[in-house]
Amino acid sequence: MSTASLPSTGRRRNPATRAAILATTFDVVAELGYARLTIEKVAARAGVGKQTIYRWWPNKGALVLDAVLERSLGPGEPAELPDTGDLEADLTAVLVATVEEFADPAFDRALRGLTAAIIEDAELSQAYRERLDEPMRELKKRRLRRAQESGRLDPGVDLDLAVDLIFAPVTRRWTERSGDLSPDGVRAIVRHALRGLTNAA
């Protein structure tokens, strides 16, 4: 996406200006890291006034969060998880796509910087939960609930716990830079998690 200079458009959000600011923010945080990113650097590179950015985003944490969400999810709400009728294949596809995103050096650096900021900033942490973590958790639970209804998962399984068992190992391996994050490693995570969640009957 081009980050060519665009004029400030006052208080009203111009979609092209917003897109340029977020694309520039992502490029700057991927290049310099979260700690070295400043609103001034983003404004200069995007060709907008610093006041325009502060009018739309209260601080750099909120700006970087929007930039990462825009790059990861695009505009609008997160899409539903795939439902082909094969739960293991569907969950594996989602996690393989996640690992491929983690493997992108630009995304990896941007997300690590944001993750560190979230740990330190309670307000940013709440925004992250409300805007990404909780909506994605609901989508994951919805897919697992359909599996319960079809008899693929034990109906007594706690879906919040099931989400943690399936998805948390990948995040932990990425965070700690340890463990197998290859497609085969992801398949093993899903297979073993589902072994404990599948209705034995």
TrEMBL record:
Any Pfam family hit: TetR_N
InterPro entries: Homeodomain-like_sf, HTH-type_TetR-like_transc_reg, HTH_TetR, Tet_transcr_reg_TetR-rel_C_sf, TetR_C
Keyword field: DNA-binding, Transcription, Transcription regulation
DNA-binding stretch(es), residue numbering of this chain: 38-57
Domain HTH tetR-type: 15-75
Protein name: TetR/AcrR family transcriptional regulator
Species, as recorded: Promicromonospora vindobonensis
